[in-house]
Design brief:
Blueprint (H helix, E strand, L loop, with lengths): L6 H10 L3 E4 L2 E5 L2 E5 L1 E7 L4 E9 L7 H22 L3 E8 H6 L4 H9 L4 E5 L4 E6 L1
Parallel strand pairs: 5-6, 6-7
Antiparallel strand pairs: 1-4, 2-3, 4-5, 7-8
């Protein structure tokens, strides 16, 4: 399993925001298939006295075709969500994307429609600052 180029930047950004990394990677298995989501994390919510749990798939979108990478990421997310809904329904699944890609490709009408239709949750991250720029639920 190769880690995404910006894996550590996203991991550090989550830690800065108070998340505890619980799985690196998060292993999930169902129906004879083993999968690995890049990160599992949780955060204590004091008001609710409960933990919020997330799974994060990190993508850099550094390849030649952004749309091909989006297709691959979407397929992964749908498969991860399929298993997580059955095994860890309390865990929210996020796609982490770099700020520059979000500001260009993810603002396109097509991509916005796909995000809405597939109910994707997005973490926009700043590579240089190792910070979360935006959470999109």
């Amino acid at each position: 399993m190769a880690k995404d180029k910006f894996h550590d930047a996203v991991k550090n950004a989550l830690v800065k925001e108070g998340w505890t990394i619980t799985n690196d990677p998060l292993f999930i298995s169902f129906g004879g298939v083993d999968l690995y989501v890049d990160l599992g994390a949780e955060k204590m919510l004091a008001a609710q006295k409960d933990n919020q749990k997330i799974a994060v798939e990190i993508k850099s979108f550094l390849g030649d075709s952004t749309i091909s990478e989006f297709h691959q990421a979407l397929g992964q997310l749908l498969n991860y969500r399929l298993i997580l809904r059955r095994q860890e329904p309390e865990r929210s699944l996020y796609l982490a994307v770099p700020l520059d890609i979000y500001e260009s490709f993810f603002k396109l009408e097509f991509t916005q429609l796909a995000i809405a239709d597939y109910q994707l949750k997005i973490i926009v991250y700043n590579i240089d600052q190792e910070a979360i720029s935006q959470w999109i639920n």
